[in-house]
Amino acid sequence: MFLVTIITNLIIVIIQCIEYVMITYVILGWFIIFGAIRNRDGFPFRIYVLLMSKTEPLFGIIRKFIPPLMGLDFSPFITFVLLHCVKVLVTGLVNLLIRLTQ
Prior knowledge:
Layout: H1 2-33, H2 43-65, H3 75-101
Helix pairs in contact: 1-2, 1-3, 2-3
């Protein structure tokens, strides 16, 4: 049971890291869109490109089903909600497994 708890905590930490990367990517994107980051060779833009390379595969899957509507891309929000649901589902299943084995 100890191993299951460790694996569950590892999955939750990985999902939380992905969520933090997504939030950082979206916020940096807003700064670029609104002109607060103008230098395309600067450090913040390089961070943005790195985060884009890590998050776009996830967002691309969602965009296949829900394309941007009137210029608004909802794929980060939907991905965030889906990751949160996976986190809750994993936690609930492990708690159920622990209760059943006691």
